[in-house]
Amino acid sequence: MTVQDTPAQILVVEDEPKLAALLRDYLSAAGHQVQCIADGLEVLPAVRAAMPDLILLDLMLPGRDGLAICRELRTFSDVPVIIITARVEEVDRLLGLDLGADDYICKPFSPREVVARARAILRRRPRSVSDGGLRLDETTWKARFNQVELELTPVEFRLLKALNEHPGRVFSRDQLIDRLYSDHRVVTDRTVDSHVKNLRRKLEQAAPGQEPIQSIYGVGYKLEW
User: Fold this and answer.
1) What is the pLDDT of residues 81-112, one digit of tens each?
2) Domain co-membership, 113 together with 7
3) Beta strand pairing status for 134-137 and 142-145?
4) Which of 73, 104, 122 is the last residue of a domain?
5) For 199-224, what is each residue's pLDDT tens digit?
6) What secondary structure does DSSP assign to 147-175, as a single string?
7) For residue 32, what is the domain's CATH number?
């Protein structure tokens, strides 16, 4: 399975319960993990807490309309958005796309069409790697573990990326230093240990009880899912 075909985290924003359930069932059957939200006021906080791979966004929502949500969303995220609505006027169509929507589907629609449109957009996602609930986006330098976005420094991101490229492989501290600093600066083993400690703490906060980074006494570290 290629990276683009891997299951995605999809947020369905739809206040019609039957329609939301229908989309959830079809997308879940396609292998994706789906969260449904019915209130427009809940969307942006949910996105900030756990950035999805795709948003299916209805325009007519209680609390806050979809166009306002899309407008603010684009101030901090480029997550793909498919607008789903019964408002078929051309002005709404153009306004929705001008605000940064990636696609536009009018009601009524076939849920199979929605799944196909979602698949097409997800295949255009930036290259990322995903293992053990971890997602690393090398184009935006963003990381997410257990559906929680991690606030990593550039060095911590490179450290996690290096370990994740070869799960189970033991890296010595010298090997990790070579991967962490492109300017070949001189740092001590304790510097690596400090970065590992900070990275472990952030992973633990995202997934309590999980310790994917393991110490190998006298050698170094490995990532084990």
Assistant:
1) 999 888 766 555 555 566 778 888 888 889 99
2) yes
3) antiparallel
4) 122
5) 999 999 988 888 899 999 889 999 98
6) TEEE---HHHHHHHHHHHHSTT--EEHHH
7) 3.40.50.2300
